[in-house]
Amino acid sequence: MYRGSDDPTNKDSKIEKPKKFWRIPDFFPNLDTEIQQKLLAYQTELIHFNGRINLISTRTEQQADLIHITDCVMASSIILKATEQKQIFDIGSGNGLPGIIIAVLDPTRQVIVVDKDARKMEFLKHVCSRLSLRNVNFYHDRAENIDANLIHCAVSRGFASITKAILALRKPCAVGAEYFHMKSDSWVTEIAQIPTQVCSFWEPSLIGEYELPLTNAKFSIVLTKKIL
To answer: Which domains does the chain have, with CATH numbers?
Structure first.
């Protein structure tokens, strides 16, 4: 799911229609060739299965390399630098964004993709087999049903508002757990909407911002840390 009103494909965006649709080597020239190949294979599978499973908005297919892959590479790079945790839960993973990207970028991290949708979970298993990813595990259930205090690091993209997300993970997250949220510039409003009593358990902070290439779309990484 694309986040907020900053979709570069909307009619008010400054983005120009690209002449090609795989620009990762241009956006990230220092990215390892093997990683680039895995990202391309992932995008190919994402688009191939989209018509059957509704993984991404059809209007973002043409520019999936920018709107989905590049977005998650930039966000994941910030998150991976911000945490030392070796196990990361992708909550409401669905299409695998950003969990699959994190697993590709850093094979030393163990990623657990969490989703209640059986068809999407089967897609994620297929993708991991296709990409030979051995650092991904699968949790087919609601996030709320994860064992208590099991999560020490989590990430979400398009899962829910920050308030709903941290309420869902209150039991599974241990004290000190880091929960990273990929958000548009509306994150300030979402933080302001967190009920006072919930803030007694979670401490929010902005840890990074980035702008997608070729666009005026700006995004943020918000960390909520469980303090009680």
So the answer is: 24-226 (3.40.50.150)
- Across the chain, mean pLDDT equals 92
Q: Coil, helix or strand for 112?
A: strand
A 10 A CB-CB count for 17 gives 7
DSSP H or E run through 184: strand 173-184
Give the Cα separation of 86 and 214 in Å (integer).
33
Alpha carbon distances (Å) from 38 to 1, 44, 157, 222: 21, 10, 20, 27
Q: Mean pLDDT throughout 164-172? A: 97
Q: Is the pTM of this model over 0.85?
A: yes
CA pair distance 163, 179, nearest whole angstrom: 12
